Amino acid sequence: MKPFVLNVALAAVAMSCANSTASRAAWEPVRPVEFIVPAGTGGGADQMARTIQGIVTKHNLMKQPLVVINKAGGAGGEGFLDVKTSSGNPHKIIITLSNLFTTPLATGIPFNWKDLSPVAMLALDEFVLWVNAEKPYNTVKDYVDAVKKAPPGSFKMGGTGSKQEDQIITVGIEKAIDSKFTYIPYKGGGEVAVQLVGNHVDSTVNNPIEAVAQWRGGKLRPLCVFDARPMAYDEPIADGKAWKDIPTCKSQGLAMEYLMLRGIFTSPKATKDQIEYYVELFKKVRATPEWQDFMKNGAFNTTFLTGAEYAKWVEAEEKRHQGLMKDAGFLASGN
User: Fold this and answer.
1) CB 286: neighbour CB atoms within 10 A?
2) pLDDT score for 44
3) Residue 122: is its pLDDT beyond 90?
4) Of the candidates 165, 118, 123, which has an alpha carbon nearest to the alpha carbon of residue 312?
């Protein structure tokens, strides 16, 4: 064979091998992936994780199993520390809620979101101000006027947990209207809704999915949503009203906004290819009808962020939570 022809042939073989190697180099899991939930079973994060698990399985979106594991100890600290100490193990992802910020700030555990590798914001969970439908509060103004006229602390706000989202929102409302509530913590949003139906508390800030059954049944009334814009869903729920018909709290004179992150992180030192694999996986999940139904049923804000934009959002929220919790006296010593 002539030297020129030989060189061309060798170059072609080398290029073919390089392309084959590059193709094989795109990372994907080689064993089951642990999907950590830093909360108990049955809650919002657990429901979302198991919905994702079902979608991935049904549509064969991964070659390896996705295994949901609940690690709720220490207000979720157990789960966060597990992933933090799994540096270099990309077969572990975690779904986060606002305890990504509140747990380290309130408990002082050696964890910060920057210890993990951000993957994607999947959605934001809404919070709604609810009252018992038997009460005469038809607007935010009706409600706020009643709170301000009553002796400080006489109005009871029910919520899930202590020093967590619901109590943080309650403190924000107190600051906005210059009044005080008595905050009563319960184990979960379902119990909170039941307590409001029974008039054991005067109001709540439950997520939509936690109180929709009682709204549909005519037992509860939504007054406003703690978002910058109304919810997008137009299917009637009760009395001909849909989620989109609930005004924002700010538009009604209650200057408080709060949304809860439903985001994904993976272990420290994850490579670009590993993060990109999970980003693409969750894009596929979001495209399924099952996911879209889940979003609609929970009236989620469907914002999706990745990369630097996602990290920037998380950093801003951490600072905001630090300010809110400092004002409320919820910070652990040293924070």
Assistant:
1) 17
2) 83
3) yes
4) 118
Structural domains of the chain, with CATH: 33-125+260-328 (3.40.190.150), 128-252 (3.40.190.10)
Predicted local confidence at residue 229, as pLDDT: 96
Q: Can you tell me the distance from the alpha carbon of 217 to that of 233, in angstroms, rounded to the nearest whole number? A: 19
pLDDT band at 161 (very low <50, low <70, confident <90, very high): confident
Q: Residue range 2-31: average pLDDT? A: 56
- In the block, tokens 């049955």 appear at 42
Question: What string of H, E and C letters represents the secondary structure of the chain?
Answer: CCHHHHHHHHHHHHHHHHHHHHHHHCCCCCCCEEEEECCCCCCHHHHHHHHHHHHHHHCCCCCCCEEEEECCCCCCHHHHHHHHCCCCCCCEEEEECCHHHHHHHHHCCCCCHHHCEEEEEEEEECCEEEEECCCCCCCHHHHHHHHHHCCCCCCEEEEECCCCHHHHHHHHHHHHHCCCCEEEEECCHHHHHHHHHCCCCCEECCCHHHHHHHHHCCCEEEEEECCCCCCCCCCCCECCECHHHCCECHHHCCCCCCCEEEEEEECCCCCHHHHHHHHHHHHHHHCCHHHHHHHHHCCCECCCEEHHHHHHHHHHHHHHHHHHHHHHCCCCCCC
pTM of the model: 0.84
Please report which confidence band the pLDDT of residue 190 belongs to, taking 50, 70 and 90 as the band edges: confident
Query: How would you label 251-281 residue by residue, b for 16+ Cβ within 10 Å and e otherwise?
Result: ebebebbbbbbbbbbbbbebeeebbbbbbeb
